[in-house]
User: What shape does this take?
Amino acid sequence: MTYKIVFGTDGWRAQIAEGYTFDNVRRCAQGFANYYLDQNKKGEAIVIGYDKRFASEDFAMAAAEVMAGNGFRVFLTDGATPTPVISFSVPQQGAVGGINITASHNPPGDNGFKVRDENGGAIPPKYLKRIESLIPDDLQAVKKMSAQEALEKDLIVLFDPNPAYMESIKKKVDIQAILDAGLKIVVDPMWGNGAGWFTEILGGGKTEIIEIHNTRNPLFPEMKRPEPIQPNIDVGLRTTVEKNADVLLIMDGDADRCGMGDENGMFVNQLQVFALLAYYFLEVRQERGPIVKTLSTTSMLDILGKLYNVPVVETGVGFKYVAPKMMETDALIGGEESGGYAFRGHVPERDGILGGLYFLDLMVRTGKKPSELLKILFEKVGAHFYDRIDTRFTGDKQKRIDGILTANPETIGGLKVSGLNTTDGFKFNLEDGGWLLIRFSGTEPIIRVYCETTHEDCVQAILKDGLRIAGIE
Assistant: This one.
């Protein structure tokens, strides 16, 4: 029986050797080639990059052989490369699209096949479905050219994407000011593609960079997965305190997402980081423009939008919704709950490197440490508290959906329910302006239960009620 490749967020992910095989990667690449052949794009350029997971470079070459075999010219990165740098390289190389071999923050045994459009951004859902539909059922329909032949014919070109990206970001942030600030920064790239980047960008000045987890290790020791949330970041938080550092910068495995820890070793969660970055652009840099956010992220942005008279646009979960909306609205910033943020004047893609640099610039311009910045933020928008629980499930997904739809709770966590939004999952709006969201993962058999509230003592009660509504407890 043919293994069915199903695209979720950004593309396809699966367990290595189970579903994620060389043959299936080649089938997936042929589907991507067919998508562009249908648009008469034969002969155009495609950028391909990869992460530091097991055999990623080999899977990337397998995809490159297929694209070359279909008449495309492939620009293949000459080493493991952060996702935002791969995305930046697509328009920089004049390519019509990109392939990224990465499973981002998934468990160690997984790998993935992400796709990007000519802007370096996520491909909208209807076009992802089109690519999926063009994936052949077997290898007989897959065309490929050997790597050696393709390299000889310049149909596969190895290139270093880093210098052009580096030159671009140095125009967006006052790097010299950060170099001169004398900060002590702990960086945790989570064994992934972000290793070495902050050291290279900020090395040689008064500011000190201390990197941990900065070698290649596809097993991701000291964490469950390379996702910038607790408990995966606990070693980084402890290191920040031990080294008496000013801030902890965290990137996920492919460096498109970022997380922060304050000078006291406390996690600054992704919703707080998103609000702080929005505050940075609106208040510190005095810039204006729409904010694009997924429905799973913070209502603090709605308050900031009103305070600074800028529109806030809400989308479904995932950058496949955020990226097109950012381009449509010329948004100032866009982001999601998982720590992915994109910025105007850059590619419409999450960028954990640039996000970290902007956060450092916020610290330097204000002279404040992370805990002090949070205090300033809460003085403006009120204190907001967030948490999330991910739970694996078995059985029929539709029955769970039906159960959630018929639950009709009057209160959740002791707070009155003021409405239900079913745009993407089930978002119960609460009387304090907070919310509970129940949503099924697009890539794994997982139910995610999230909440945000202005009542710190209600967080766990809200989550517990959410699990009950989802049929978990």
Notes: The mean pLDDT is 95. Residues 385-469 form a domain with the TATA-Binding Protein fold (CATH 3.30.310.50).
